[in-house]
Fold:
Amino acid sequence: MILQNDQTFILATKNTTYVFSMLESGHLEHLYYGRRLEQPSAEIFRQKRAFEPGNSIVYDDAHKNLILEDICLEMSASGKGDIGESFLEIEHADGSVTSDFLFEKAQIMDDKKALTSLPSAYDESQKIQQLIVTLKDASYDLQLQLRYEVYEECDCIVRTAVLVNSSNETIRLHKMMSNQLDLARGTYAITSFHGAWAREMQKHTVMAGPGNYINSSFTGTSSNRSNPFTMLHEVHATEDAGMCYGFNLIYSGNHYTSVSQNAYGKTRLVSGINPRGFSFVLEPGDVFEAPEAVMTCSYEGFTKMSHNMHEFVQEHVVRGEWKKKERPILLNSWEAAYFDIKESSLLKMAKEAKNVGIELFVMDDGWFGQRNDDAHALGDWKVNTEKLPGGLGGICKKINEMGLDFGIWVEPEMVNVESDLYREHPDWTIDIPLKPHSQGRNQRLLDLTRPQVQQYIIEQMSEVFESANIKYVKWDMNRIFSDVYSRYLPAERQGEVFHRYVMGLYRIMKTLTEKFAYILFEGCAAGGNRFDLGILSFFPQIWASDDTDAIARSYIQEGYSYGYPLSAISAHVSSCPNHQTLRVTPMATRFNVAAYGVLGYECNLSDLTKEDLDAIREQIDTYKKFRSTFQYGKFYRGRSGRIHEWTCVNENKEQAVGMLLQEQVIANTQAESYQAKGLLPQGLYHFYNKKRKYDVRKFGDLINTQAPFHIKQGSLVHNVVARFVTMYGEQEDYTVTGENLMYAGVTLKDAFAGTGYSEEVRYFQDYSSRMYYMELVKE
Structure:
């Protein structure tokens, strides 16, 4: 709900209130964002000042007490005394960089005016209230629209800004933010998520204090180095208590979030396009749209903030046929075959995949042109008939006849120098003419600022997607930007390359996803190098990381869960030793972690033992039973670190799945518990785990404490005994109310601690895990 009370504007969601007001000067003062107020009083929120402070700038003679440096604002600009982080920076035709945008008008609409150059949040009912406040810089005849919209049920507010050059002169935009939040009181901490390839979304928390904390990317993408999702929260906030703000951008390029504290103790957050390397020329009449920014607020800690964001993404960002549809379980060929694509081998893997219950077979890189390594043929989207004699249509038909859907890998934004495409169009790449180029993964970026290149990709991908019954596409992007230059743009517009690339990408994605609406598209950028709301506006899920190691993934997926729903997070079970870490983890743990998201497998099923194939078959049966809960349920984080504790609960709270994962054993630590979240307190639940059998060889030469004769570890006798003797694990099985499971938790059976083992003892060694199932007992 959006209300205007004289010159005060109130944005109300189900549980929060956001208030700002126009000052006599025409500036917009931010007053409040927090817990819902039924009758917010703007008067008590306003900044009071009798005299100007020393060593500061007075706005003008008519407003002697207006010090822009020491007031909370809805947007800030340079030149009039606000020396803090600015919302926008404009270089005018006369060389001045001063801007002074003052209130001109406001309009509340019952339907949203969406952006035209970038993806926008939406509502299926098309009934989203939008407030457009128009500010004007009278000195330079420019208009700035601040747009706000309210998504009441998920407690989210979306902001953006649109700059209109209504003057007769050319201006240059050096900085344009999407969101600004000034907070007058409180000490805050900042949590952001950083990493690298195979190490995405590592959580980092620092104190906000004097100075400036910046979370940004300059890779040309939203990046694995610094994800755009950021939290600002009370220092002692927990999962379940404390004020917490969450922020994100619907954007896939270089981003920027700054949190600063000024000399008067006020905290300012701004977020938007990274101003580094950015400038945009606006001729008279031109319009520039900033990406939309989403923010949410919870006084009930991180969990509620995350749930708000999850609901917003699922309901108002993801769209199309796959928005709420359960995602298929797939087998991807990459770690089984890499570039060694052979139809016979793929069909053999697909046959095993069908036998264990997998639903979709995905052929990864290596199927086109002379693509035998990463240095050749990227950009040549013609099937290699030596590898696939019947083309895509032939192998697809054979896989469909097995009862599996078929999917492929593509990387349309890239080209190898050793390719027919590059030889024909060397001017189609982002590089500096006649200068050495620094490459990544032996490839170059196609220049998506060029409409001709955009159209080429649309046509080439359309031809590929139409050539077979393709139901899934993994869209990759394996390098970051370097030597950023477009031959398509004049020298004075080279600062526009990054942003125009993203706009070109969105045009391509929008065209293809609308044309092939039935295809499930999965985003990928060397794993999580472009995991953001811009991509999710077109692709409903993203490959979270090229790292499939279960322990590494537990941190990566926990990191994503703060701002993104599980339905957006793609995760695979792979072979061991893991291809990224060489770590060996139990098959059960690899599944237990990957199940919290969109499950897939990435291993050569043809090489697995019958025991492993049986385990995978059981895993898939379990996942199918709880698939809706894993993909669309509410996710709750418990402990993290040596013990990871997760719970996922379905919408009606009739079904939940919990997990405990232990990184390393601590000697003589037998006791452990699992504490659920999100259940019906008075609901009666059947709580249980699945009874497991363990190979006696896992206990090493401890077998000799029970054997009637000595058995040498690893010997033939040891292996023979293992065929007939198995060790059974513990069984937890209770019928109990939700309040007991949530408020007290289940004290689990003792873990092995060196003094004995039986069916009443939990085998819980390094990297071990358990899933616990909770099902509402219906009378």
About this structure: Residues 610-632 form the longest helix (23 residues). The first strand starts at residue 2 and ends at 5. DSSP finds 14 helices and 40 strands in the chain. The mean pLDDT is 96.
